[in-house]
Design a protein that fits this description.
The complex is a heterodimer. Chain A is an all-beta fold. Chain A is built from no helices and eleven strands. In chain A, the strands form two sheets. In chain A, strands 2, 4, 5, 6, 9, 10 and 11 form a seven-stranded mixed beta sheet that branches. A four-stranded antiparallel beta sheet of chain A has the order 1-3-8-7, with no helix packed on it. In chain A, a hairpin with a 2-residue loop joins strand 7 (64-70) and strand 8 (73-78). Chain A is globular and about 40 Å long. The N and C termini of chain A lie far apart (34 Å). In chain A, 34% of the residues are buried. Chain B is built from no helices and eleven strands. Chain B has strands at residues 4-7, 10-14, 19-25, 32-38, 45-51, 56-59, 62-67, 72-77, 86-92, 103-104, 108-113. In chain B, the strands form two sheets. In chain B, strands 2, 4, 5, 9, 10 and 11 form a six-stranded mixed beta sheet that branches. Chain B has a five-stranded antiparallel beta sheet with strand order 1-3-8-7-6, with no helix packed on it. Chain B is globular. Classes of the chains: A mainly beta, B mainly beta. The interface between A and B is medium-sized, with 26 and 24 residues.
């Protein structure tokens, strides 16, 4: 009955490698997000997708490429990993619409990425 | 773009006392203000939110107030309990036209001493 799930939970890799994090939501939401939480706990949005379309790209290096195969999935692929990419990455989803109304963003459990 | 400042960065209170966390935002177009609680090693979870057409909202021991003129909002927790210990984040959103993105404050570590 998990609402927003991410895999893997932990990811340890070497600098220069390419890795992916997967996210799935079973809430029927149409908007999904990726957030990065750094070592100081600061949470910052990276991307958002609505119905598989990119809505927000917050000046994230193009080594980060999100992919949304359908509205229940939003994966994050990272090329040429750098030390500074070490962080916890959270996926989130919400049910939003242009007519307004703000709905809770539900967060996944997070993926702790460590780049050595 | 929107900027959210949050104070204090750490807060220690005795069990049963009240705790207040304050946030200010920069863009008057922001109209949705959620508060998230994050326990150690866990995901952020929404505890309360307020929309710009409301000045105050309460849910049991938790309340949020919003002053649109001054562009600040606050979280109030009464009768604190040890399980309230966590990191609390305020956030602001400018709505659909801006992708409903949440801009978070830097967080407040709340410690409730028993």
């Amino acid at each position: 009955d998990t609402a927003v799930s991410q895999t893997p939970k932990y990811l340890v890799t070497q600098m220069g490698n390419d890795k992916s994090i997967k996210c799935e939501q079973n809430l029927g939401h149409d908007t999904m997000y990726w957030y990065k939480q750094d070592s100081k706990k600061f949470l910052k949005i990276m991307f958002s997708y609505n119905n598989k379309e990119l809505i927000i790209n917050e000046t994230v290096p193009n080594r980060f490429s999100p992919k949304s195969p359908d509205k229940a999935h939003l994966n994050l692929h990272i090329n040429s990993l750098e030390l500074g990419d070490s962080a916890v990455y959270f996926c989130a989803s919400s049910q939003d619409s242009p007519s307004g109304g703000y709905n809770e963003q539900f967060f996944g459990p997070g993926t702790r990425l460590t780049v050595l | 773009g929107e900027n959210v400042e949050q104070h204090p960065s750490t807060l220690s209170v005795q069990e049963g006392d009240s705790a207040v966390i304050k946030c200010t935002y920069s863009d008057s177009a922001s109209n949705y203000f959620p508060w998230y609680k994050q326990e150690l090693g866990k995901r952020p979870q929404l505890i309360i939110d307020i929309r710009s057409n409301v000045g105050e909202k309460k849910d049991q021991r938790i309340a949020v107030t919003l002053n649109k003129t001054a562009k600040h909002f606050s979280l109030h927790i009464t009768e604190t309990q040890p399980e309230d210990s966590a990191v609390y984040f305020c956030a602001a959103s400018m709505g659909w036209e801006y992708g409903n993105k949440l801009v978070f404050g830097a967080g407040t570590i709340l410690r409730v001493k028993s």
